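Exercise 3.2. Students should predict the tertiary structure of the chain below and write it as C-alpha cells, then compare their answer with the key that follows.

Predict this chain's 3D structure.
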Amino acid sequence: MSARSEERRQRDARVGRVRGMRIHALPEDVVTRAREAAGRDEHHERVAEAAGSPLRCCLRKAREGEPLVLFRYSPTAGRGPYEEVGPVFVHAEPCGGPDGGLPVELGRAPRVLRAYTAHGRIHDGVLAQPETLERDLADLLAHPEVVEVQVRSLSHGCFLFAVTGD
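Answer key:
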C-alpha cells in the first residue's frame, strides 16, 4: 500500500457517514502528536483511571483500565473569534478509530449543538435530546452558511465530535 493510500485510509477511518452527514473524530495527526507528547509536557498527560470519559479518537466511552492521554484541543483551530480550547481524552495506543455513523455511546444524553460558518462564527445553537439528535444535526446543516456542527457535552461544554454535510 502506498503512503498516500495509507494516509487516505487513516483519514477515512476517522469519518463515519449517516444520511447525508459525515461524523468526524479528531484528526489522526492530532491524536498521534498527543500520544507522542504524553508525559513530556504539562499539556499532555497519561491517565489510567478515567472510565466513562468520552474518547475523541474512537467516539465511545473509556472502559475501566484503558490507558488514556488527556490533552487540550481547539476544534476551530484559530478560525474566527469563537476559538475555544478544552480538555479531550484519546486512547494512549492506536485504537482503529470510530465504528462509523452517529456514536451511540456519546449520543445517549442531551447534547449542545453549535453550528459554525466557514469563518468560524457561530450561526446557531441547539440543545438536542438523544431522540432528536440526528434530525437536529440535519436541520442545522441544511443552512447554506453552516459548514460544521460541533457536538458538545451539556454538563461541561466539552467538544465531543464534529459533523459536516456529505
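Discussion points: Residues 1-13 have pLDDT under 50 and may be disordered. The first helix runs from residue 3 to 13.
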